[in-house]
Design brief:
Distance between the termini: 32 Å
Radius of gyration: 15 Å
Strand order of the largest sheet: 1-2
Strand content: under 5%
Order of helices and strands: HHHHHHHEEHH
Largest sheet: 2 strands, antiparallel
CATH class: Mainly Alpha
Oligomer: single chain
Amino acid sequence: MRIPSQKQCRQLIHKMKMMDHIVDHSCQVCRVALFLADHLIIQGIDLNRELIHAAAILHDITKSRSFETGEDHAVTGGRLLTEMGFPEVGDIIRQHVVLDSNVNDRPPGEAEIVNYADKRVRHDKIVSLEKRMIYILQRYGKSPEHCVRIKKLWRESAYMEKKLFDLLPFQPEDCCKINP
């Protein structure tokens, strides 16, 4: 498995001209993801910390340009990393908005952790899942169809939160304590 180094991640962020606020958001998502991963590893869950780091820091790699193109940044970001020779990172990036449907049947993996961490960060602040989902509903719930999709995402995220925190020795609100 090939994983981009931290230096390669920084170079790609620069090359893709990620907006500063998106970089700040991605750094905070990375902090949350690694915090969760470190504690899950202690609990005996087999996770690749470097894979989580790269996928979390790069999860919005094509978001800046998506404001102009209208592209699905999860899909194009995943494709970009896959084409660069990092298919495992690309797969996690592709799933950072909506997870593949088969994740409920196994212990949490890297994709679930990055997906959940992204749901806990509004801009560059760690917030409750409820606050983040209300924000997403207000910002992106422009049609009844969008609202239905967002509410489904909310239910899936709540399930993921329970799945993760059933394995951890602390509560979801404790993630807010890692704000810098």
